[in-house]
Amino acid sequence: MLAPGLARAIEAIPVDPDQPKIDITAKGELYEGRGDRLQIETAPGPDGYIGRMAVQASTPGTNPGWLVFALSNPTDERIVRWLVAPRYTLANSGVLRPELDAPRIAAVTPSLGFRPEPLKSDRGDMFRLNLEPGQTVTFAAELSSLKVPRLTLWDPHFYQAKQQDRMLFNGVLLGITGLLAIFLTAIFAANHRAIFPATALIAWAALIYFCVDFGFWNKLFPVGPDRTAVYRAAAEAGLAASLVLFLYTFLRIGLWHVWIRTMFWGWIAAQFALIVVAIIDPQTASGLARASTILIAGIGTGLIAYFALRGQDRAMSLIPSWMLLIVWLFGASMIVLGKLSGEVVVSGLVAGLVLIIVLLGFTVTQFAFRTGGGAVSLGPPSLVQMKSLAVDGSGTHVFQWHAGRDLVTVSNDVEMELGLDPGSLNVTVEEFLQHMHASDRERFRLMLWSLQEKQGGELRTDFRMRRTTAPISGTIRPRRAQRECASARCVGLMRDVTSLKRSHERLMHDAVHDSLTGLPNRELFMDRLQGAITRAAEGQSHRPTVIFIDIDRFKNVNKSFGLVIGDSMLLTLGRRLGRHLNPQDTLARLGGDQFAILLISDSDPHHVATLAERVRRALRTPMKISAKEIILTASIGIVVHDGSQVSAQDMLRDGEIAMLRAKRGGADRIEIFNPAMRGEDESRLPLESELRMALDRQQLQVFYQPITRLASNQLAGFEALLRWDHPTRGRLAAEDFIPLAEESGLIVDLGSYVLGQALEEAASWHKVLPRDRDPLFVSVNVSSRQLFRQDMVQEIRLMLARESVPKGTLKLEITESLVMENPERAVEILTWLKTFGASLALDDFGTGYSSLSYLHRFPFDTIKVDRSLVRDSSLNGQTPLILRSVIALAHELGKEVVAEGVETQADASYLRSIGCEFGQGYYYGEPMAAKDVAALLAALASHRKRKQRERARDEPATPSGLEVQAPTQPALPELPGPSAATSGVT
C-alpha cells in the first residue's frame, strides 16, 4: 500500500522531432487534494528503473492541483520544446462566471536536470523544456487555477509560425473593423442621423474586444497581464450595451409610449453599468453581459418581427443582419459551453462577428441614403431632377402636341388611369379626339387650331375623357417649345381634376342646401322667390305664394329627447311636406324648426288653402319615438304676392308676420296675411335696434329697491332693477323689454351689465357704511341664458375678485321654473357659484309648480315669496295658511325668507310675527337711483356716528389702572321709519 501523497509511476510520452505539437492535458495525470507536497514515482527510464520524486508547492498552504506527465527522447539529439498553457480560451469558458485571463501554471518541476525556464508571454504561461538524447524525464506542473488548463507541447519554430499567421489574420479583422468604425463615425458629419453613431458604437466596442482578445491591448497601453480580465469583461459588456442602443435607435423605440421609452433607457443604463461592475468583479460582469446578449437577441427578434409585420421598412431591412446575429450567437453558445472547440472554430466565430458588423453598416448606410426610387444618392439632386420629382408628386402628366406631324403624345400613366392599352393615346389629333367626350371635341379642336394660327400661346382648358366607368376631367397647360415656333410644338401638363370638380359641386350644393334635410336653404329659397316675383311682375307666370311654417314648441322636443331625435324628426317632417308639392314648387328649411313653401304652380286661393290644410294635417300625424307617439303642431302663415312686395325679403317677412299672428292665437293655426298685420309688428324691430343701441351706449339705468330685516327694522340690502328711459316711450320697466331681449339674445349682455353695475355700487356701499357683521347685499336676477352659459360661473368669479366685496354681498335671484328646466345641471352650477362667494335666492316661489322633491337639493340660502301670497293675506284678513306653510317649510330646510309686496305696516307686522326674516315693498321704499342710495347710506352713517358719540359721552370715566367693559348695546335700527327709506325718491 502506498504512503499518503505517493503516486504511481506514469507512462512516458515519446517526443518525435517531426511532431509540431503534443496535447499534454489528455495524456497527463491530474492529482488534486494532495496537500502542499506531492510524492510520485517517475516514469521508467531506458533501463527500466523507476525512481521517486517529491514536489513542494511554491506557495505554502494553497493545496494546489498537480498535472504530472513524462517525456522521453528516443533520438540521439537534444530536443527543445515549449510547454504552453493559454491564460484564456473561449471554448468551455462558461456563461455565468466564465474563466477569464488568469495564471494557469505556477511552476514545472522535472525529475532530472534543470528546472524548465519560464518564457515571457502575455497570452499564456510558457516554459522551455530540454530533453537530452535517450532521456526520460517526469514533470510535475503546479496548477494556479481550479480549472485544468490546456497544456500543449509545441515545436518552437512551428509555434512562432502559427502565431505569425494568427497575427496576420487578427490584423485583417482589426483593420476591417477599425475602418468600418471610422467610416460610420465620419459619415455622421454628412448625414446627421442617430443610426450612424449607434452602429459605429457597435463597431468601436467590437474593435476594443478584438484588441483585448488578440493581445494588442497590452501593446497599445502599458497594462499588465493581470488586468486583462477587467478589460475583457468591460469589452463584452460594452458590446452588449451597444446592441441595445442600436435597437432603440434604429427601430425608433423613442416614438412609442413613454413607459416603453423609459424601460428601454433603464435597460441601456443597466447594460452600460456592467462596464463599471467589470472593474470590481470581472467574472460577474462578463457573465451578466453574456446572459444579457441572449436576452437582447430574443427581444430584438420579437421587435423586428412585430415591426416587419406592420410594414416598417427599417425592421424589414434589418432582418438579414439579425438572422446572421442569431446564428452567430448559437455558435458562440456552443463554443462557450464546450460543445465545439478548436482554433478554427474560435477564429470562425471572430470572423462571423466582423461579418455581422459589416452587414449592419451596409444596412444602415443603404437605408439612410435610400431615395424614393430605392437608389442611393450621395449628392444633392439637380434642378431637372427636382422638377421631375415635383411633377410626379403633383399628380400631373406630360402632354405634347406636334402640329407639324399632327401627333399627340401623353404620359403612359394617363393610359393606365383610363384603363387603356399602352400607346392608345399616342395618336393623331383626330384619333385623340375620339377618346374625348363628344361635347368637348369641337372646343378642343378649335383651341388647337387657334394655337397653330398664332404660332404659339397658352392653352388652359378642362375637358372630359371617355372610358368604361365614368368620365375623367383634365387640365392641359401646353406652352410653345423654345425655338420651335415654326413647328408649333406645344408641351404642357395634364392632370386629373375629377375630385376637384366633385368637391366644387359639393360645395356649391352645400352652400344653397340644408346640411341636415338636403332641402334648399334660405339663400336658395330667396333667390327662387325673387325670380318668381320678377316673372310675375312681367306677367310670365302665376303670382307666387309663400307658406311660412314654424313647428310649435319644438325646443321642448330637443330638451326632452335630445338633438339626435330632434334631427330625425325634422327629416321626417321634411319628407312629409315634400309629398304635397308639385315639381315646380320649392320646399326649403329656413333654419331651426322653420320651413317655407314657394308655390308657383297654382295661385287659386281655394287650392292654396286646401294645400295649407293638408300640410297642417300631415304635420299632426303622430311619430313614434322610443315607444311613444309624439304629435307635433305648426303655426302657418300664408302670403300671396299682391304687387306691394318688391323684394323676396318683403314677401318672406309678411309670411313670418302671418305666422306670428297664428302662433299668438294658439298652436296649430293658419293665418292669411293682410296689410293690417304689418303695422302691428313693425314696431318690434325698431325697439330691438333701440335696445341694442341703448346697451352699447350704456343708456340703461339700474335702480335699487331696499330690503329690510323685519326683526330689527334694519336695512339689509337692495334688489337691482333695470329701467330704460326711452326717448319717446318714457321709462320702461323690465317686463316691457326683457322678453324682447331674451328673444333677440341681448339678455346675456344685459345680465352682465346689471351684474357689473350692481357689484361696483355694492363696493362703494361698504366704504360708506361698513359692517363687520351682516354686510349689505345686492340681489340680481339671473335669466336662463345666463345661468346655463358655459362662461357664466367664471365671469361672476372674476367680478367678485375685481370688486373685492365681502362674502355674501352678491345674491343671485333665480326663478323656480328656471332651475327646473335642467335640475341636475342647475345644482352643479349653483354649487360652484356658492363656492365662489355668491349667495343664492329662489325667486317667485309659490307662483309655479313648487317642486318640493328638488327644493332640498338646491343650495339656496334664501326663498323669496311672491307678492301674490302677501297680497292675498291682506285682502282676506285671515291667517293665510299657504304663506305660513311656506315660511315654516323654509325654516325647516334652514333657509331664510324674503317676502315681496310689503305695502302696509300691517303686512310688515304680520310677517314679523310669523318669523319672516326680510321684507321688500313700497312700504320700505320704491326703487331708487344709485345717487339716492348713496345719500341714504351717508345719512345712516352720520346717524351711527352721532349715536356712538352720545354713548361715549354718557359713559362714566374709568379710574386709573382699571379696565371696565361696557355692556353690549342693542343694535340701533338703521331705518328709523318708512319715511327715511322713501326720502328723496319720486
TrEMBL record:
Stretches for region Disordered: 945-986
Protein's UniProt keywords contain Transmembrane helix: yes
Originating organism: Methyloceanibacter superfactus
Annotated InterPro entries: Biofilm_reg_signaling (IPR052155), EAL_dom (IPR001633), EAL_sf (IPR035919), GGDEF_dom (IPR000160), Nucleotide_cyclase (IPR029787), Rev_trsase/Diguanyl_cyclase (IPR043128)
PANTHER family in the cross-refs: BIOFILM ARCHITECTURE MAINTENANCE PROTEIN MBAA, DIGUANYLATE CYCLASE DGCP
Cross-referenced SUPFAM superfamilies: EAL domain-like, Nucleotide cyclase
TM regions (residue ranges): 167-189, 195-217, 229-251, 263-280, 287-309, 315-337, 344-369
UniProt keywords, alphabetically: Membrane, Transmembrane, Transmembrane helix
Protein name in UniProt: Diguanylate cyclase
Statement: the UniProt record of this protein carries the keyword Repeat: no
Domain GGDEF residues, every copy: 542-675
Superkingdom assignment: Bacteria
UniProt domain EAL: residue ranges: 684-941
